[in-house]
Design goal:
The complex is a heterotrimer of chains A (242), B (218) and C (208).
Chain A (H helix, E strand, L loop, with lengths): L8 H32 L14 H28 L2 H33 L7 H22 L3 H29 L19 H44 L1
Chain B lengths: L1 H14 L4 H18 L3 H22 L3 H8 L2 H6 L5 H30 L7 H25 L6 H28 L5 H30 L1
Helix pairs in contact in B: 1-6, 2-3, 2-6, 3-6, 3-7, 3-8, 6-7, 6-9, 7-8, 7-9, 8-9
Chain C lengths: L5 E11 L2 E12 L3 E5 L6 H8 L7 E5 L5 E4 L11 H11 L6 H6 L15 H15 L3 E5 L7 H16 L3 E5 L9 E4 L19
Parallel strand pairs in C: 3-7, 3-8, 5-6, 6-7
Antiparallel strand pairs in C: 1-2, 1-4
Helix pairs in contact in C: 2-4
Classes of the chains: A mainly alpha (242), B mainly alpha (218), C alpha/beta (208).
């Protein structure tokens, strides 16, 4: 029994069909618990006020924005090496979710930034990196849409994903270099555990798990849709040939 | 492979505008900026490094889609793919021809345009050096983007979208080199990063671009 | 100069745009032999030739051919409008590591046009130039897709002679064409190899 057996489309459809109701349930549960706890049951921070509570959306979405790209990179590599179609379609399915997560992270960051730093946008390294990531997602999705032959599209987007990953890392470094020390206030990031008091920590972990589950669930749903769309295409192509 | 480089250069000269297109665009950008931000030479001098690099980058972007599109249309790309020279070499030569027709003239013209923007005198040599080191990376990355979109009817806009984020590191280190040179600070770090990007791009991207062309041809 | 060579194709299947068009194609080609591919439009002759030339992967089957033996020519001639006839040929000759372009010019009656720019040629003249390119590749197996499009009767005869000379020199040719080239050649009708659409009753089979 090998993990690769799930790369078989029929098998994938069956297994994911069984898993999905449970995943939806777990996602809903952890998101409701985490967000309600975070929004209503944590004390207001002395120097932040209630605005701090946006971290329960901001931090998990930022986390998933990056993880979605990593997942796409792994899926692309699996497609290039082992030619499992499900893998290529999963990478395609993950891109719009990653894009949305990036957008949520950027927007919640802007909303939070206004009361904290007095500005919606600053060319802070972290913010800039996310903007670049947003562009990468856009380009990746546009390339998928532009190419008609599904296998060629999968190949080309995989190549783009690999090259893009290298350049994304490079951009992260370049951006740090470019704006170091100019915007100290902006580096008040909350991703270091010691920066955040314990009362806020536990609900944050729960929302992170919730966003992670939400991502997995949505990827499965979208991959199923992509597989069905491919089957429809194959059926239509066959109709034409008969 | 040299034959391919020479042919592309001959074509660029005969077609007319091969060399001029990028240069003219660069000139237009640089001339338009003072009209937009005003004639104050302190402001112009402060933004000159960035404007010059952004202008060079946009001028480079303008001609990217022609790297492979023309050869794809007339069937040369099919024939080159079945020729004895490796497709990676074809990509590298095409990128080299693109650089000679855009990056090189831009580098040579940059000091003149730098004067128009009141660039600090100390920064001129860093401008030329950074462009000379950085524009090959722009051509090579652009060739990769062009390879990805070679089969597409309206690939131009998509190509720009794909290449734009890939250009960010080169732009940052390039403009930073000039800005630091203008302020009399040490330029070694950004310059070395720029050289590293160019070397890595020239060494590795031909393989990715050739793979993309093979996929697009089938 | 010619190596003893042979091309063997076994049980080949190829696809266009992800949809299988031909399957079970098998044939052999020896030096001195010409094989005409026949079949109605859209059957997949171009796809087959592109697969043989290595421009796209085969779905299944085996193509055995000596390395660097094939010269491929399709509908597009790969000519540059602003280069002269001689320059166009010389470029391809150099790419294939050859020097001599004069024979090719003479054989296709292009000698008088050598200095003319390709953009000032007629469609038939361009075609002749595209075919003359085959001679400067120095490769023994020609894989040609509709080589006689836009050629007049005299030019077709010229082309037929060039192919015959190539065969006499030990070369081979695989030609997809609808017309008679004026010499004896074996024929291969690809119609029987048409891919049978498979039943798609599970998700697996939606993926070729």
């Amino acid at each position: 029994m090998s993990l690769w057996e799930y790369a078989n489309p029929t098998r994938f459809m069956r297994t994911s069909g069984v898993l999905l109701p449970w995943l939806w349930g777990l996602t809903g549960l952890s998101l409701v618990v985490g967000l309600v706890w975070g929004f209503f049951l944590t004390p207001e921070a002395e120097n932040f006020g209630s605005t701090v509570k946006i971290i329960y959306v901001h931090v998990p979405s930022a986390l998933m924005a990056i993880n979605a790209w990593l997942m796409m990179l792994v899926a692309s590599l699996i497609w290039l090496v082992r030619r499992h179609h499900v893998s290529a379609l999963a990478a395609r399915a993950a891109a719009p979710i990653g894009l949305t997560m990036t957008l949520i992270a950027l927007v919640t960051g802007a909303i939070w930034g206004e009361p904290m730093w007095g500005t919606y946008w600053a060319w802070d390294p972290r913010l800039t990196s996310f903007l670049i990531l947003f562009l990468f997602y856009l380009g990746y999705m546009a390339l998928w849409e532009a190419i008609e032959n599904p296998d060629a599209a999968a190949d080309l987007t995989s190549v783009l994903c690999m090259v893009g990953s290298v350049f994304a890392l490079l951009s992260r470094y370049a951006v740090n270099f470019w704006n170091q020390g100019l915007h100290q206030g902006a580096t008040m990031s909350l991703d270091k555990e010691e920066n955040i008091a314990n009362v806020y920590w536990l609900p944050l972990v729960i929302t992170m798990v919730g966003f992670g589950l939400l991502f997995v669930t949505l990827v499965l749903v979208r991959t199923r849709t992509e597989i069905r769309a491919r089957r429809i295409k194959a059926l239509i192509a066959r109709e034409r040939m008969v | 492979m040299i034959a391919l480089l020479l042919r592309d250069l001959t074509l660029a000269i005969r077609a007319g505008g091969g060399f001029g297109l990028a240069l003219t665009f660069f000139l237009i950008v640089v001339v338009l900026v003072p009209f937009g931000v005003g004639p104050d030479s302190t402001i112009l001098s402060a933004i000159a490094p960035g404007i010059l690099w952004v202008g060079a980058l946009l001028a480079c972007l303008l001609s990217l889609d022609r790297i492979f599109a023309l050869d794809h249309e007339d069937g040369s790309l099919d024939l080159l793919a079945t020729a004895p020279i490796p497709l990676e070499g074809v990509v590298a030569m095409k990128a080299a021809a693109h650089w000679v027709t855009t990056g090189l003239p831009l580098t040579l013209a940059a000091p003149g345009l730098g004067m128009l923007l009141s660039l600090e005198p100390a920064a001129f040599r860093w401008l030329v050096l950074s462009l000379a080191l950085g524009t090959p990376a722009l051509s090579m990355i652009g060739a990769f983007g062009a390879a990805l979109t070679v089969g597409l009817k309206r690939g131009g806009l998509l190509l720009s979208l794909l290449v734009l984020p890939l250009y960010v590191p080169t732009l940052i280190f390039g403009a930073e080199t000039v800005a630091r040179g203008a302020d009399g600070m040490a330029t070694a770090t950004p310059l070395m990063m720029l050289a590293a990007i160019t070397l890595a791009a020239v060494a590795l991207l031909p393989f990715a671009a050739a793979a993309a062309i093979r996929i697009n041809l089938r | 100069m010619r190596r003893v060579m042979e091309m063997v194709v076994e049980n080949l299947a190829c696809a266009r745009g992800g949809v299988p068009v031909l399957e079970g194609v098998s044939f052999g080609l020896r030096g001195g032999q010409a094989l005409m591919l026949r079949g109605p439009n859209g059957i997949g002759k171009t796809t087959l030739l592109r697969t043989l030339a290595g421009l796209q992967p085969a779905l299944e089957g085996r193509i055995s051919v000596p390395p660097e033996a094939m010269a491929y020519a399709a509908h597009a001639d790969g000519l540059k409008a602003t280069l002269s006839v001689a320059e166009n040929l010389a470029f391809w000759a150099r790419i294939f590591g050859q020097r001599d372009v004069d024979t090719a010019l003479t054989d296709f009656n292009l000698g008088d046009l050598a200095q003319r720019q390709a953009q000032n040629l007629s469609a038939g003249q361009k075609r002749r130039l595209g075919l003359a390119r085959l001679l400067v590749t120095g490769r023994p197996i020609w894989v040609l897709d509709e080589p006689t499009v836009s050629l007049d009767v005299a030019s077709v005869a010229l082309f037929g002679q060039a192919v015959q000379r190539h065969l006499e020199g030990g070369g081979a040719a695989l030609i997809a064409t609808h017309i008679d080239l004026g010499f004896e050649a074996d024929e291969l009708d690809v119609t029987p190899f048409r891919a049978v659409p498979r039943e798609i009753d599970s998700f697996d089979e939606a993926f070729a």
